[in-house]
Design goal:
The chain is an alpha+beta fold and 99 residues long. It has 3 helices and 4 strands. It folds into 2 domains: 45 residues; 53 residues, SH3 type barrels (Roll). The protein has a 4-stranded antiparallel beta sheet with strand order 1-2-3-4. The longest helix has 34 residues.
Amino acid sequence: MIFLQSQGFDQRGMIFMFGALAVMYFFLILPQRRKAKKEKEFRNDIKKGTKVVTTSGIHGKVAEINDTNNTVVIETGAGKIRFERAAISMELSQKLSQK
């Protein structure tokens, strides 16, 4: 008899579960989506002459942009190097431009 009573539908448990999912969405997923969107816009707005830093830490200035295969040629102290656009770090490049 007691076993049957504990198997009933518990609304408080469902409310807690949906609340936990909402908190996870607003504090984890939504900010990550916003950051990814800003990074994508940053990479698409790169122009020739922009000073950038790659994710591997290489500093340089954009010399060429090739839109067909999403590559960028960066001029460094050692010469010109071709990188994927995705290899350019938004955070490090913005810190470089603030100096």
